[in-house]
# Entry
Amino acid sequence: MEQVVIIGSGPAGYTAAIYAARAGYAPTVIAGSVTAGGNLINTTEVENFPGFPEGILGPELMERMANQAARFGAKLVSDDAVEVSLTGAVKQIKTLGGQHFEAAAVIAATGSSYKELGLESEKRLAGRGVSYCATCDGFFFRGKELIVVGGGDSAIEEAVFLTKFASKVTVVHRRGELRASRIMAERALAHPQIEFAWHSVVEDIHGDSAVGGVTLRDLRSDQLNRLDAHGVFVAIGHTPNSDLFKDQLALDRDGYIIVDGPSAPDEPGNAQHQATSQPGVFACGDVVDRTYRQAITAAGSGAQAALDAQDYLEELAADAAIAAATV
Ligand code: NAP
# Structure
């Protein structure tokens, strides 16, 4: 039986693995078969992770975290957890590849996934001009006109990145101001290849086998406008990847795993900030966090989850020692 199994391999999962490994628990990290490294794998330059004054590419940062975890004895498994049973003292985890793990403690660090617009045409043209990852697909749109939907840091980062390939990028945003951080917003607003369609939403995406354009609806006038475009990049946020846990752990109304948090009463057994509704199960990163969702905050909560798991395992060991002494 494992002492700690970590499900997920973004900054939260790998940081939890580094801490748990250095504490001597040799954790197993179920890192994902195609998604190892989490959402930062789809990011270009990360400029705000402390310790990298020149910036670092997202995939390189994740590779470094994985190597650091492995160096201290974490076992990284390229497989996906598909079924968990977390209610008993021995936690069970089954994977897509048919592996079965048993653990005394589990750390859920499954992150979040890209939100979709919810259009039929979006589904039909996904991978045929509709994309959720500029770094993955931007290359295919050399000299083309593109749409980016959203007004947050992701949308703006994607828009700026796509100007390397596109002749023009139009950012379609439902409000009249960006949510993105000031420095990124200023970059985009001043960019000669970036235009903005404010107070607008994508009503439909046109094309049979490839994107040919979009219909936008102006939310102030309700007027429909057609815009030529060969690609639509959707960057409207994320939903937590908590389906795996929905019958096992308490989730909030949007599916985020509920953890005790820093304001939990400081009572024995209740002072673990990343503790979920099940004893011995801890959660961290974007699957618990609707607010900050930064690599550094995910990493921080991953460290907390590992320390909480350590605390839990030490309590278990102490209880077992007392029970053995009193027999
Ligand atoms: P976000 O900050 O939640 O922004 C989502 C954007 O999409 C918002 O502008 C929102 O509009 C819009 N939106 C949401 N649902 C929509 C819908 N159904 N139709 C149309 N528009 C919709 O998400 P994010 O940009 O992915 O960023 C997530 C977190 O990661 C943030 O904390 C961000 O700072 C961080 N991040 C940082 C970097 C970086 O520093 N390099 C890069 C990427 C992300 P409203 O504004 O009206 O709500």
